[in-house]
Specification:
This protein is an alpha/beta fold. It has one domain: Transcription Regulator spoIIAA (2-Layer Sandwich). Helix content is 44%, strand content 31%. The protein has four helices and five strands, in the order E-E-H-E-H-E-H-E-H. Helix 1 packs parallel to helix 2. The longest helix has 16 residues. The chain is globular. The mean pLDDT is 86. GO terms for molecular function: anti-sigma factor antagonist activity. This is Anti-sigma factor antagonist. Pfam families: STAS (PF01740). It comes from Desulfosarcina alkanivorans.
C-alpha cells in the first residue's frame, strides 16, 4: 500500500498533517517533505492525524521525532491524533512522546488547544 499525505491549517499556528496508508522506508520521504514545508511556517502546534495510517516503521517514527525536535527548538509542540491500535503500540513500546500529546479524536484535541490558548490570552 502507498502513502498519501495532506496538510491543512486548522487555526492560526496549528497545522494538521494527515497520513493514510503505510509509513515505511519507501514512503517516509513523502511525509518528511510535507513536514518540512509546514515547519517553514513555524507553527506552535503540529498535529499528526494518523486515523488512516495502517503501519509505521522506524523511518516514520524518525520523521515525527525530527519534527518534534525542530518544534521544541522554538517552544512548539507535536501532538498525535487518532492512533490506530497497532500504531499506538509502536509509540508505547518506544515511549517516543508523552501520553498527554496523544489524542483520541478531534474533540479532545480542540479542548486541549482551547486550554492552551486561554493560558496565553488570559
Amino acid at each position: 500500500m502507498d502513502l498519501s499525505v495532506t496538510s491543512k491549517q486548522k487555526m492560526d499556528g496549528v497545522y494538521i498533517l494527515s497520513a493514510a496508508g503505510r509509513l515505511d522506508t519507501n514512503t517516509y520521504p513523502r511525509l518528511e517533505a510535507r513536514v518540512e514545508v509546514v515547519l517553514e511556517e513555524k507553527p506552535h502546534t503540529l498535529v499528526f492525524d494518523m486515523e488512516m495510517l495502517d503501519y509505521i516503521s522506524s523511518m516514520g517514527v524518525r520523521v515525527i521525532a525530527k519534527a518534534q525536535k525542530t518544534m521544541k527548538a522554538y517552544n512548539g509542540r507535536v501532538v498525535l491524533l487518532n492512533l490506530q491500535p497497532q500504531i499506538q503500540k509502536v509509540f508505547d513500546i518506544i515511549k517516543a512522546l508523552p501520553s498527554q500529546q496523544v489524542f483520541s479524536g478531534m474533540d479532545e484535541l480542540d479542548d486541549y488547544l482551547d486550554r492552551m490558548q486561554r493560558q496565553v490570552t488570559g
